[in-house]
From TrEMBL:
It comes from Pseudocalidococcus azoricus BACA0444. The keyword Calcium does not apply. Signal peptide: none annotated. The keyword Repressor applies. Gene3D superfamilies: Single helix bin. This is DUF1778 domain-containing protein.
């Protein structure tokens, strides 16, 4: 039997009267309580916002290209090499 998580956390919102009325109307139109409507809507938006940060899919061509980039030898741009070979500000001050 599936276990249903108990809702024990609370989130307070400050909103304008017109925003509150819009949420009440939308919840009524969806046959949901305002709490259910806001929670479902916010979680759907959260899933959409976080989707590209947690999982992404590649087709076969994209996967091949991705693997080719990973297999390339590392690049060493001249400016980066120069930066990494210069003494740091801490090394310069230590010898003074």
């Amino acid at each position: 039997m599936a276990r249903i998580a108990t809702r024990s956390e609370k989130l307070d919102l400050r909103l304008t009267p017109s925003a509150k009325q819009k949420l009440y109307r939308a919840a009524a139109a969806a046959n949901r309580s305002v709490s259910e409507f806001v929670l479902e809507s916010a979680l759907a938006q959260a899933d959409e916002t976080l989707a590209d940060r947690s999982h992404f899919g590649l087709n076969a061509e994209q996967w091949t290209e991705f693997m080719a980039v990973l297999d390339r030898p590392p690049q060493h741009p001249p400016r980066l090499k120069r930066l990494l070979n210069e003494p740091s500000i801490f090394e310069q001050n230590a010898s003074a």
